Automatic annotation (TrEMBL):
GO cellular component terms attached to this protein's record: mitochondrial inner membrane
GO biological process terms, semicolon-separated: mitochondrial electron transport, cytochrome c to oxygen
Record keyword ATP-binding present: no
Pfam families listed in its UniProt record: COX6A
Record-given protein name: Mitochondrial cytochrome c oxidase subunit VIa
Annotated InterPro entries: Cyt_c_oxidase_su6a, Cyt_c_oxidase_su6a_sf
PANTHER family the record matches: CYTOCHROME C OXIDASE POLYPEPTIDE VIA, CYTOCHROME C OXIDASE SUBUNIT
Lineage: Eukaryota, Fungi, Dikarya, Basidiomycota, Agaricomycotina
Keyword set, alphabetical order: Membrane, Mitochondrion, Mitochondrion inner membrane, Transit peptide
GO molecular function, one term: enzyme regulator activity
Length: 134
C-alpha cells in the first residue's frame, strides 16, 4: 500500500512541477558560422559532382550503348537471315517441305492426352511436330 502512495505522490509532484519553457537558439550570421560555411561548400561540391557524373553517363548512353545496340541488331538480323535461307534451302532440296523429324522414343511421351488434344498448349505448326498425326 505504501508503494502505491509513494508512486502517486511522485506522479503528482512531477505533474504539478513548474515547467521551464524552451528557449530559442540565437541566430548567428552566416559569415560567423564556420560549420555552415563547410556544409554549404560540401553541398556545392556535391551538386557539381552530380552534374558532371550525369553528363558523363548521358554521353556513355548516347555514344556507346546506342551504337552497341545497333551493331547487335545488325548481327542478329544477319544470323536470322542466314538461318531462314538455310531452312529454305532444305525445303527446296526436299520438294518444298521440311524433312520429317525422327520419331525418337523419348520425345513427346504422354501418359494421357492433354484436355485440348495431343499437342501442347503452345503448339506452333512451323516449329513443333504435330502429335495428332503421329
Amino acid at each position: 500500500m505504501s508503494g502505491i502512495l509513494a508512486r502517486t505522490a511522485i506522479r503528482t509532484a512531477t505533474r504539478t512541477a513548474p515547467r521551464r519553457s524552451r528557449g530559442f537558439a540565437q541566430a548567428v550570421a552566416e559569415s560567423e558560422n564556420p560549420a555552415l560555411k563547410t556544409y554549404l561548400a560540401e553541398e556545392q561540391a556535391l551538386a557539381s559532382h552530380a552534374a558532371h557524373t550525369s553528363d558523363l553517363w548521358r554521353k556513355i548512353s548516347f555514344y556507346v550503348c546506342v551504337p552497341a545496340i545497333a551493331v547487335c541488331c545488325a548481327w542478329v538480323y544477319n544470323v536470322e537471315t542466314e538461318h531462314a535461307a538455310h531452312v529454305e534451302h532444305i525445303k527446296h532440296e526436299n520438294g518444298g517441305e521440311l524433312p520429317e523429324t525422327p520419331a525418337y522414343d523419348y520425345l513427346n511421351r504422354r501418359g494421357k492426352p492433354f484436355p485440348w488434344g495431343m499437342n501442347s498448349l503452345f503448339f506452333n505448326p512451323h516449329a513443333n511436330k504435330n502429335m495428332e498425326d503421329a
